[in-house]
């Protein structure tokens, strides 16, 4: 069960993920992220402060857009991950490929850097 | 005895008794004429043979004429008609002989007249008894206990009446009136009439009239003869024949009248019957392997017939396609009507989202020009809350659809919905079955992918445990003996579940066995494995593994981690379990050469008593009823406390603790542990 809200402001799109991302709800995440990556603003913020759990299917969604983000010269940052969720990203090694920060301000700084 | 045998014997007996009756009667007549010769036989002989004749006829017809079914009513009447025709024709032939010969002396011969009479006395009971048996079948159609009792009594009384020549006059009168009364009472049972359709009713009327004509004819000819010739004595004043004649006559008359009065309403009954049949067709369409399309076709046909609509159409989605089933109406007319009605201001019957459920008659069609229809009604076709389509019925008459007709049509529509739901459930069940079958195959494949025994040497003991939440899991572990001193060990988790996970797992096994024998350092193993497996993983899939090489000569373990859960290690000397913190990246996440940048190989030397604990995230992420995870700390503490146990002992401890923590025996995820205890 997951809820994904999208807001766009000054060339930055924010996706707020609330709930759990498992095998079935990862489809929603995939749709939302795909939309933003392919047709959205160059800056992408993922607000994970409401994300309580993410399964390997959910991680797979993030992983599948890493290449696209790089080729399209987009900037994406995830923020507000709780310890458990952060750990899941870390173990898989995604922390080395994605930008994971604590606060929205840090994330904005990363995205605005370019 | 078989039915055929009984019929045959009864027939033979009937013929024999008739011959005996005739012969004895003629002998008696002879002796009476001459007055010289005493009859060698008693005068009661013909009467006794007549009784025997009647009884054999009863048995004959009882077995010959089968029980009534709604389809055989007219056939039964037809049987009477044929018997009547035969007997009357024979009788008329004999009479015409009489007529042709005129009043010659030969015909005045009492013996000849008696013979004629005896032939009639043979024919009449045959006709009467066959009619009687048919009436019995009809009276007892849909019988009740009371009716059976009444009928049995009636038959016993008839049996008594057979012996009337030997009864005193009073008794004869009592039996006669009792029979007439009972006959009238029983004649009230004619449920069969209701089941005749219009055509059958007319046939029955004709056959019944003819039957009555025969009865009248026989009555007159027989009693005429008796009146004319006093010497015709057999079965004289027979209560049996008379009451049988009256009963058959009464029942025929009653039936005739009832059928006559039922004629005007028969079409309603027929329609009701047809509705029931149609209803059955709709509900049976699921079982007879028909398609959704055919259900709609049946629905259209039955609705048109039930409501006598002049035109109709059904709109529905069949197999993902908008389909229109039409009856007596063109596509363009449908389009015109829809456009016209939708353009009207008041409620639109085609808009199902806005208006309430149920019937939707549209009043304004009357004003529409160019179409002959004046009434229209729209019925939505739904299952549960899902809207499947609609049925539209049209009539040229104004206000042509009454409530009753629409109610029955509504039940047709409902039944069609149920049938279609049945189809869908059935195809879902079939798909599920196929899916299960597929999973079974995957499970079999997977069970062969995991080794039964892991390679070990004198330096360590090893044990593994794995369980899958689904039929097919994504956990993988394996070992390979590189040489006498080196053993390669792998644990992994394939993202996703089910068949695709099993498929990727088998690929991982191929990669492992292909690369392990090359005796590569763990980092190199991961780089090559990433290259090998990336090509076959879909975009969102990855594989996490940890790869170990246990070297006996140097008492050293080299390992590298690709996104898999950090390895837990119990150091005997320090008496403490801790996780290795080297970084790593899952296989298939970076599908190019830069993957090498993310690999951090590690190595350590082992001492006796040290324990290496490998596991998958099913263990650390297992939740209890509060939603808490089993977690890394709990696992480490557990190992700390129980590290002195041997490998199987420690493993059992972990599994037991895990189940206790979760409070249930089935976990949501796959979980695997491998315990390596060094000695």
Question: If you had to describe this structure to a student in words, what would you say it looks like?
Answer:
- The complex is a heterodimer of chains A (114) and B (679).
- Chain A is α/β, with parallel strands linked by helices and 114 residues long.
- Chain A has one domain (2-112): Transcription Regulator spoIIAA (2-Layer Sandwich).
- Chain A contains four helices and five strands, in the order ββαβαβαβα.
- Chain A has helices at 26-39, 56-71, 83-92, 104-112, and strands at 2-9, 12-21, 43-54, 75-79, 100-101.
- A five-stranded mixed sheet of chain A has the order 1-2-3-4-5, sandwiched between helices.
- Chain A is globular.
- The mean pLDDT of chain A is 90.
- With 679 residues, chain B is of the alpha+beta class.
- Chain B has helices at 3-34, 45-64, 73-101, 105-108, 110-139, 145-162, 169-186, 198-228, 239-262, 266-284, 292-307, 331-343, 403-449, 498-516, 522-534, 617-620, 631-642, 647-662; strands at residues 311-318, 321-327, 360-362, 375-383, 386-395, 460-467, 475-481, 486-494, 543-551, 556-562, 568-571, 576-579, 602-605, 611-615, 671-678.
- Chain B contains 18 helices and 15 strands.
- In chain B, the strands form three sheets. A five-stranded antiparallel sheet of chain B has the order 2-1-5-4-3, sandwiched between helices. A five-stranded antiparallel sheet of chain B has the order 6-15-14-11-12. Chain B has a five-stranded antiparallel sheet with strand order 7-8-9-10-13, covered by helices on one side.
- Chain B is elongated and about 150 Å long.
- Chain B is 54% helix and 15% strand.
- Chain B folds into three domains: 71-268, no CATH class; 285-427, Beta-Lactamase (2-Layer Sandwich), CATH 3.30.450; 450-678, Phosphatase 2c, domain 1, CATH 3.60.40.
- The A-B interface holds A 23, 26, 30, 56-57, 59-61, 63-64, 66, 84, 91-94, 96-97 and B 493, 495-497, 539-542, 544, 562-566, 583-586, 589-590, 598, 617, 629.
């Amino acid at each position: 069960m997951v809820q994904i809200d999208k807001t766009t402001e000054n060339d930055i799109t924010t996706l707020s993920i609330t709930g759990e991302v498992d095998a079935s709800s990862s489809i929603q995440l995939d749709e939302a992220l795909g939309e933003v990556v392919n047709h959205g603003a160059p800056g992408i913020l993922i607000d994970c402060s409401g994300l309580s759990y993410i399964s390997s299917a959910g991680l797979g969604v993030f992983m599948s857009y890493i290449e696209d983000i790089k080729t399209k010269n987009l900037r994406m940052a995830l923020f507000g991950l709780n310890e458990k969720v952060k750990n899941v990203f870390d173990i898989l090694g995604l922390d080395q490929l994605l930008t994971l920060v604590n606060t929205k301000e840090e994330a904005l700084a990363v995205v605005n850097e370019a | 005895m078989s039915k055929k045998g009984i019929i045959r014997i009864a027939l033979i007996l009937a013929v024999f008794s008739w011959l005996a009756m005739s012969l004895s009667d003629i002998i008696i007549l002879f002796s009476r004429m001459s007055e010289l010769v005493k009859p060698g036989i008693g005068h009661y002989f013909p009467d006794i043979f007549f009784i025997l004749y009647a009884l054999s006829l009863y048995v004959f017809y009882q077995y010959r004429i089968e029980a009534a079914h709604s389809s055989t009513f007219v056939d039964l009447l037809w049987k009477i008609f044929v018997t009547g025709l035969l007997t009357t024709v024979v009788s008329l032939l004999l009479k015409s002989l009489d007529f042709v010969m005129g009043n010659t002396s030969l015909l005045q011969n009492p013996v000849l007249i008696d013979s004629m009479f005896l032939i009639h006395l043979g024919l009449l009971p045959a006709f009467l008894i066959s009619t009687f048996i048919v009436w019995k079948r009809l009276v007892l159609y849909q019988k009740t206990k009371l009716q059976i009792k009444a009928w049995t009594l009636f038959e016993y009384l008839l049996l008594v009446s057979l012996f009337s020549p030997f009864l005193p006059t009073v008794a004869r009168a009592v039996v006669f009136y009792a029979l007439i009364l009972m006959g009238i009472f029983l004649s009230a049972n004619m449920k069969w009439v209701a089941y005749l359709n219009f055509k059958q009713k007319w046939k029955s009327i004709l056959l019944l009239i003819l039957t009555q004509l025969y009865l009248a004819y026989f009555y007159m000819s027989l009693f005429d003869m008796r009146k004319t010739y006093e010497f015709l004595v057999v079965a004289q004043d027979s209560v049996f024949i008379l009451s049988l004649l009256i009963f058959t006559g009464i029942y025929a008359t009653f039936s005739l009248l009832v059928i006559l009065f039922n004629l005007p309403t028969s079409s309603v009954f027929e329609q009701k019957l047809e509705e029931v049949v149609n209803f059955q067709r709709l509900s049976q369409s699921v079982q007879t392997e028909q398609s959704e399309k055919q259900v709609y076709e049946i629905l259209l046909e039955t609705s048109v017939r039930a409501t006598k609509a002049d035109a109709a159409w059904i709109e529905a989605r069949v197999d993902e396609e908008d389909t229109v089933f039409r009856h007596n109406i063109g596509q363009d007319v449908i389009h015109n009507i829809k456009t016209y009605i939708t353009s009207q201001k008041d409620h639109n019957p085609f808009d199902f989202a806005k208006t309430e459920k149920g019937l939707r008659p549209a009043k304004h069609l009357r004003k529409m020009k160019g179409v002959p229809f004046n009434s229209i009604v729209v019925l939505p076709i739904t299952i549960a809350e899902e809207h499947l389509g609609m049925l539209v019925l049209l009539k040229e008459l104004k206000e042509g659809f009454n409530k009753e007709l629409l109610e029955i049509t509504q039940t047709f529509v409902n039944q069609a919905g149920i049938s279609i739901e049945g189809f869908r459930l059935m195809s879902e069940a079939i798909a599920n079955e196929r899916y299960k079958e597929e999973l079974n195959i995957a499970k079999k494949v997977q069970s062969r992918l995991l080794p039964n025994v892991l390679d070990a040497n004198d330096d360590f003991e090893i044990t593994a445990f794995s369980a899958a939440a689904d039929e097919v899991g994504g956990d993988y572990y394996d070992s390979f003996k590189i040489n006498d001193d080196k053993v390669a060990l792998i644990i992994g988790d394939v993202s996703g579940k089910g068949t695709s996970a099993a498929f990727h797992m088998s690929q991982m096994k191929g990669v492992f066995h292909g690369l392990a024998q090359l005796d590569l350092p763990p980092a190199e193993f991961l780089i090559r494995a990433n290259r090998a497996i990336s090509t076959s993983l879909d975009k969102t899939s990855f594989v996490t593994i940890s790869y170990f090489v246990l070297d006996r000569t140097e008492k050293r373990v080299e390992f590298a981690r690709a996104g898999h859960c950090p390895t837990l290690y119990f150091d005997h000397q320090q008496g403490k379990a801790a996780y290795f913190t080297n970084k790593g990246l899952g296989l298939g996440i970076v599908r190019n050469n830069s993957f090498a940048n993310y690999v951090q190989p590690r190595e350590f030397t082992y001492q006796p008593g040290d324990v290496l604990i490998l596991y998958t995230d099913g263990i650390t992420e297992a939740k209890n009823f509060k939603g808490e995870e089993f977690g890394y700390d709990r696992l480490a503490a557990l190992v700390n406390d129980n590290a002195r146990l041997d490998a199987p002992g420690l493993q059992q401890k972990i599994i037991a603790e895990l189940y206790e923590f979760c409070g249930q025996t089935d976990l949501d995820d796959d979980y695997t542990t491998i315990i390596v205890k060094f000695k």
